[in-house]
Amino acid sequence: MSRKLQPALLGGVLIGVLSALPFVSALNACCCLWVIAGGVLTAYLLQERSPLPMTAGDAAIAGLLAGLIGAVISSVIGAAMMVVMGGAAQQLDQLPRDLPPEFARVLERFRELPSSVWFLVGLLFTLVIFPIFSMLGALLGVAIFRKTPPPPPPGTVEILPPE
């Protein structure tokens, strides 16, 4: 597991930081771009650390771990950004005033929620979505970066292990 930890940590940092930055995070709306990119980075780093070809299982586990790390980092940075920007209630004040009355009533109920609820809902959402898409990115990274094993030297017979 320790062989997968450093690539997963670096992939998770990429996921978390780029998913939490205000304008850069908008690209996550495009099929979770930063989360998939973090999974691909994880697979690349995992393959670079090993002389043997990586397996899809190893990459999937490292991708899941990177997604979990990225979700936590993204939520913590997002909460810090929300504090700097004035909280969720102040963000709701910036919405247009010509909203339908039903939608305005729903937004008023959201305004009453404490900030900790906003944080926990975001964290739970990312803890579900980020590992899935990061794993898919890592599997894509296997297809792109996997090393092919060298052919056996001439004149040798390959003996396969029993199954």
Structure, explained:
- This protein has one domain (2-145).
- α1 runs antiparallel to α2, α1 runs parallel beside α3 and α3 packs antiparallel against α6 (115-145).
- The longest helix is centred in the last third of the chain and has 31 residues, at 115-145.
- The chain is elongated.
- The mean pLDDT is 87.
- By secondary structure, the chain is an all-alpha fold.
- The chain has helices at 2-20, 33-48, 56-85, 87-93, 101-111, 115-145.
Q: Keywords, please?
A:
single chain; 163 residues; mainly alpha; 6 helices; 70% helix; 0% strand
Short synopsis of the structure:
The chain has 163 residues and is mainly α. Helices cover 70% and strands 0% of the residues.
How much of the residues is beta strand, in percent? under 5%
Radius of gyration: 21 Å
Q: Roughly how much helix do the residues carry, as a percent range?
A: 55-70%
**By helix and strand content, what is the structural category?**
mainly alpha
Count of helical stretches: 6
- Low-confidence segments, given as residue ranges, are none
Shape: elongated
Most strands sheet: none
Q: Give the integer mean of the pLDDT values.
A: 87
The termini sit apart by 25 Å
